[in-house]
Design brief:
The complex is a heterodimer. By secondary structure, chain A is mainly α. Chain A is built from 21 helices and two strands. Chain B has one domain. Helices cover 74% and strands 3% of the residues of chain B.
Chain lengths: 464, 496
């Protein structure tokens, strides 16, 4: 009983917050700002409690696997959810469907937590659906905008498709190994033809969720159409949780087939990096731009998996944490600018530094970190993934991947340059709300300190 | 001496520049930080000489901490004579750069922050003994360079900034691959980025040759290795005055130092294999740079192309692989850093007054601004290697070292490189003559004022360095010589 409470404490806490919001919604109702502050507070407490560590071991006959690293990965997801409620406070308060939105977001968060701890393919499938379907509904929450419905439609269709692919893969795995349990499958897998096919299906399904090339086509439209907080949430948590799952599958269940998946992964990494970067070069819309940049980032995450050793898992976890700081800061600034001025195109960021130095610096820091420029944490995160990618000794592959950093520098720096250039009509002064300012400062602190000081990585490393 | 002081001062300066409310406080903070750093580097010089007099050898004042042990990354600091010389150069250029930019009106706080950040990258680079930490600091300096050109530059600044950033980042990728490959070539999985441990490994010769190519070409791009020099003229001419000074005076030296430290020292077999190719390419750079300079009409382009030519001497000295030549390469880095920074500072001073950099539109400027004219003479004469100034010492050392290689190829390379001095004299004297001497070409220039106090101060700092090196080269030679010799000794060749 104690194990049931302690090992699953993150899930319990998210459920409790979810129920709180639901009950408040069903009751007399509270003012949106009160509700939001409450959720912010509860999520902060949940994150803090979740970081303190969790038990380990299987529950429910192996359906659920708790472990220290999985516990920390869930804390990252919770932290990201908390940051989203902070950074987009304005949007939240203005939204007419705040309780519904929060319930959807928290359900999806719960799904992701279960996903990270799944020990059985059925459990994995269920939690994945729980993580995805609410997000499709949330993407639709800008009810007045046609693009929002379009984005939601694309998200639900592509998710449904990838779920079908996933189920097919699962059935092939079950058919060839006779087990749905991770441990049972790992023992029974022998790399036969059907199992390779099963792997391809499973990998394709997750590539959809992570928007790795060639399954990335939904990303830009969904990011552009959805409300900004949904996009931001989707871009960091859904990607992060899926990455945690995929690395577990590759290094665990399919470890014995690493020769087969290593080649496949190399192709996907290069395609993802190149396509993500080339399309990011041409984007004029900040959300589409961040969508393609996030595709390119996934290329690096996948690269960290090629080494097939535990260090890669530490590196990926650390990268996702850093990515939460950097991407949310970028989305946070973009949301503020969009909410106050309506501008979502990159050229209107010209001269931002003159009227809004704070926002411009935050954006610049976020972009530096996404580009992987020292002293930001993004530099270290990317370097670890690159070292991990070189582990197998295919240096041409690493060179091809690393050249993408030089390319990406061009488009990240373009925005920085625009923000600090003179403008004929600079943007009006934007005053962030206290919670938004706090959120940005937390992100900035993470970006600047999490790399130069090594203790965050050290913590992940000791858990792994 | 605790070397972290050299990193702490710029970090604190950076914080002060960013957090102080006004632009005036920010520039004073930047200047104070740079001055304190200059003082600290002089203390370092004295302590280093004292420690060496007590029998200290190799890298002194070492300190080591874990950074990311999972990834074999440590934080290992230490300096030898070469690093001390480079740190001295950097502090002088930073002080001068801050002074020259005193009246910067456009986003001054950000501007001084960028200068400080660039300096921080250089200091960290020169004191790091861990390849990854070195790479970290090298990259740290990329963004400030880009932004200095893209935001405060002139002319085709966006093109130049992008060109510089992409070429330098591409070069960084080569360096990164080289150091990762080197790390993984450790015997028995003793992976490390620590140079003092790598130097003890017995890396197979063919591996050394491959990795040497990556690292040397990577750093070579930073120091204008032909044919990767093309970012130099565009970058330097589009940058603001202090930006050009930092690019030529500091940034290009990161490349030379990296070639020497991370490539030649760690990978002697690679150096032996590539030595002749380096000599060949650097002679091309020296001659090509000099002749292209002859054709330039813009003062900044003149100095930028002459930098290509002068940095060729650095690579020539390294490629010759003799003690005198390698020491000469280091001397040339210091000399060129000071001299070219002074030249760019003077060009900047002329430009803010005349609003032109075209040689043809100037003439007789010595009358309204004698101080600036004298500075220009000084920088020019040092550039063409007049005895008594820094350039002579450095180039002479490279030539002597080159002549010690007694093959026809090396001797003819030395002779060809030496002949470039004649061309240098032509373009330097012609540029100075056309702009400073003769009758006043544009009567509007008659009312121009001479250098302001901050410009004089900047020039004096650099001039002091040039004269200290030119009149009394002994101390610098003593500083650099033993460590240059140590690098060459590792090659195990019979060359002196």
């Amino acid at each position: 009983m104690e194990a049931l409470l302690l090992s699953m404490k993150t899930e319990w806490m998210v459920t409790a917050i979810l129920l709180t919001v639901l009950l408040l919604r069903l009751g007399k109702g509270v003012a949106p700002s009160t509700l939001l502050s409450l959720v912010q507070l509860l999520l902060l407490v949940a994150t803090a409690l979740s970081v303190t560590g969790s038990g380990s071991g299987p529950l429910f006959g192996g359906m659920y696997q708790a472990g220290p690293l999985a516990g920390f990965q869930k804390s990252i997801l919770l932290f990201a959810a908390w940051m989203v409620t902070l950074l987009f406070a304005d949007w939240h308060r203005g939204s007419e469907q705040l309780p519904e939105y929060l319930i959807l977001m928290l359900s999806s968060l719960l799904g992701m937590c279960f996903m990270v701890s799944a020990g059985n393919l059925l459990m994995l499938y269920l939690s994945l659906e729980l993580a995805t379907i609410p997000m499709a509904a949330a993407a639709n929450l800008d009810l007045g905008r046609k693009r929002s419905s379009e984005g939601a439609m694309k998200l639900i269709l592509s998710s449904a498709f990838s779920s079908g692919v996933l189920l097919f893969g699962i059935s092939l795995v079950y058919g060839t190994t006779g087990s749905l349990d991770f441990a049972g499958i790992t023992a029974a897998i022998d790399g036969g033809g059907l199992q390779t096919l099963a792997f391809v299906f499973l990998f394709a399904a997750f590539a959809f969720k992570m928007s790795a090339v060639p399954f990335h086509l939904w990303t830009a439209d969904v990011y552009q159409g959805s409300p900004m907080p949904v996009t931001a949430y989707l871009s960091v948590t859904s990607k992060g949780a899926t990455a945690f799952v995929v690395v577990n599958l590759l290094h665990g269940m399919f470890a014995s087939m690493s020769d087969a998946w290593y080649r496949l992964l190399m192709v996907v990494v290069l395609a993802t990096l190149v396509i993500g970067n080339l399309f990011a070069l041409r984007q004029q819309d900040i959300k589409r731009f961040l969508a393609f940049s996030s595709i390119a980032q996934v290329g690096f995450i996948l690269m960290g998996m090629t080494g097939n050793r535990p260090l890669g898992v530490s590196a990926i976890t650390y990268f996702v944490l850093v990515y939460v700081f950097s991407n949310l800061a970028a989305f946070g600034v973009a949301a503020l600018v969009s909410a106050r001025t309506g501008a979502e195109d990159i050229p209107s960021y010209r001269g931002l530094a003159k009227s809004n130095p704070f926002l411009a610096w935050m954006m610049a820091l976020a972009l530096f970190s996404l580009a992987g420029i020292p002293p930001t944490a993004g530099f270290f995160a990317k370097m670890f993934l690159i070292v991990e990618g070189s582990w197998q000794g295919d240096y041409w592959f690493v060179v091809a991947a690393a050249i993408n950093i030089a390319v990406s520098l061009y488009y990240y720096m373009r925005i920085v340059r625009l923000m600090f250039s003179d403008a004929e009509r600079p943007m009006e002064a934007i005053v962030p709300a206290p919670s938004e300012r706090l959120g940005l400062l937390v992100c900035a602190a993470g970006i600047v300190l999490a790399g130069v000081l090594s203790w965050m990585y050290d913590h992940i490393s000791t858990l792994n | 001496m605790n070397l972290t002081i050299l990193l702490a001062i710029p970090v604190l300066t950076l914080l002060a520049v960013l957090l102080l409310p006004g632009a005036r406080q920010a520039r004073w903070a930047a200047l104070a930080g740079a001055a304190v750093q200059l003082a600290a580097s002089l203390v370092l010089l004295l302590r280093f000489r004292a420690a060496r007099a007590d029998g200290g050898k190799g890298f002194l004042f070492q300190m080591q901490h874990d950074w990311y042990p999972d990834w074999n990354i440590g934080f290992h600091l230490g300096v030898d004579g070469i690093s001390v010389a480079m740190i001295l150069l950097t502090t002088l250029v930073v002080v001068a750069g801050v002074l020259v930019s005193w009246e910067e009106a456009r986003m001054p706080k950000t501007f001084f922050a960028m200068l400080t950040l660039l300096g921080l990258g250089a200091y960290g680079f020169f004191v790091s003994l861990d390849l990854f930490a070195m790479f970290f600091f090298l990259e740290l300096a990329v963004v400030p360079k880009y932004l200095l050109i893209a935001l405060w530059g002139s002319g085709r600044k966006e093109y130049s900034a992008n060109k510089l950033a992409i070429m330098l980042m591409g070069a960084s990728v080569a360096i990164l691959m080289g150091i990762i490959a080197l790390m993984f070539s450790a015997p028995d999985g003793q992976w490390t980025f620590d140079m003092l441990r790598i130097v003890e490994w017995d890396v197979p010769a063919d591996t050394q040759v491959t990795i040497f190519g990556l690292i040397f070409i990577g750093f070579g791009v930073f120091t204008a290795l032909f044919p990767f020099h093309t970012w130099v003229p565009d970058g330097h001419s589009s940058a603001p005055t202090a930006g050009s000074m930092f690019l030529a005076g500091i940034s290009m030296k990161l490349g030379g130092y990296g070639c020497l430290r991370a490539a030649v020292w760690l990978l002697p077999e690679g150096a032996l294999a590539y030595g002749d190719a380096i000599v060949g390419l650097s002679v091309i750079a020296i001659l090509y740079g000099a002749f292209v300079t002859l054709m330039q009409t813009d003062l900044k382009y003149i100095n930028a192309y002459s930098s290509v030519s002068h940095c060729g001497f650095v690579l020539l000295g390294i490629g010759m692989l003799t003690k005198a030549a390698v020491a000469g390469a280091v001397l040339q880095m210091v000399s060129h850093g000071l001299m070219t920074a002074l030249f760019f500072a003077v060009i900047g001073m002329v430009y803010v007054r005349t609003h032109t950099r075209q040689v043809a539109e100037m003439g007789g400027l010595m009358k309204p601004m004698p101080f600036i004219a004298v500075l220009m003479f000084l920088a020019g004469l040092s550039s063409l290697g007049l005895p008594g100034l820094s350039g002579f010492v450095a180039e002479m050392s490279v030539f002597v070292g080159g002549w010690e290689r007694d093959t026809a190829f090396h001797r003819s390379a030395t002779v060809l490189a030496a002949m470039s001095i004649v061309v240098t004299a032509v373009y330097v004297l012609r540029a100075i003559g056309a702009t400073m001497m003769g009758p006043l070409r544009d009567q509007a220039h008659a009312a121009l004022t001479d250098a302001a106090w901050y410009e004089k101060a900047a020039a004096l700092v650099l001039t002091a360095g040039i004269l200290a090196m030119g009149l009394a080269p002994g101390w610098l030679n003593d500083l650099v010589g033993p460590d240059a010799a140590a690098i060459v000794t590792r090659l195990g060749t019979s060359t002196p």
